Amino acid sequence: MSDSTLTERTPHHRPGAADRVVIDQVSKRFEITVSRKRQSVQALDRVSLSIADGEIIALTGLSGCGKTTLLRIIMGLEKATSGQVTVGGNVVTGCGYDRGLVFQHSELFPWRTALQNVEFGLEVKGVPREERRRVAREKLELVGLAGAMDRRPNQLSGGMKQRVGLARALSIEPQVLLMDEPFGALDAQTREGLQAEVLRIHRETGKTIVFVTHDLDEAVLLAHRVVLMAPHPGRVKQVFDIPIEGPREDVSAVRGSETFAELRYQIWRSLMERDEQP
User: Fold this and answer.
1) What is the pLDDT of residues 66-82, one digit of tens each?
2) According to DSSP H, which parts of the chain are helical?
3) In whole angstroms, how far apart are CA 226 and each of 13, 77, 99, 223?
4) Of all residues in the chain, what percent carry a pLDDT higher than 70?
5) Contacts of residue 245, Cβ cutoff 8 Å, sequence gap at least 6
6) Pairwise CA distance, residues 104 & 25, whole Å
């Protein structure tokens, strides 16, 4: 594979695609108390990235690089200290229905069935009962849970709970699907199955997806681009194109390819390189 295949560049969208998310010079500082003294911690430093409509982006890097903080700023759960994020041309000032979030843990309401959990966002949105039930059923079918709609969370496996969380995020028809290490707590077999499911859902819906992961295999498998972040403070270190052609749902075949192995190695090597502060 030539050096031109693995591209480091100023982050921007794929050629010919419109921007769906624009992160413009985003910085974030937290005030913390250590030994009764207030300290300021720089979590993100002037992060800029444009994400194309329909693109899948993986945010990865060592602990402390601010990838989850950045995801929460995109969602509107955190406010940037400076800079801004726009989604569909609108400045993010808080949470909105144009973005859906899948948490690391499913965060389902234990007293609700799978169907009722998926309906929740639609209830808040004020969607009439029959319509929200129809949409919830449709999304549970999309994630392969047509036969588990009436089960409560304690009757579901870990993988099934994450599918419900994914269906709930999709139910509001967001422009952007955000995922924070959604498969990190699952066993390898379940995780691989859900990775294939996300690829299938992306092929069917064309959603823009941004996800956080520590797993380089997962990043290379799912993403069109992998954004490697450096820590202390968090910032974009390098962006890798992932030129794997064709459907990737055959996860084992993709992982076994020479292209996959070299892409993963290139990202790992950059991750391990000593990072000089700018």
Assistant:
1) 999 999 999 999 999 99
2) 67-75, 114-125, 129-142, 158-171, 188-205, 216-222, 251-255, 258-272
3) 12, 23, 20, 6
4) 92
5) none
6) 26
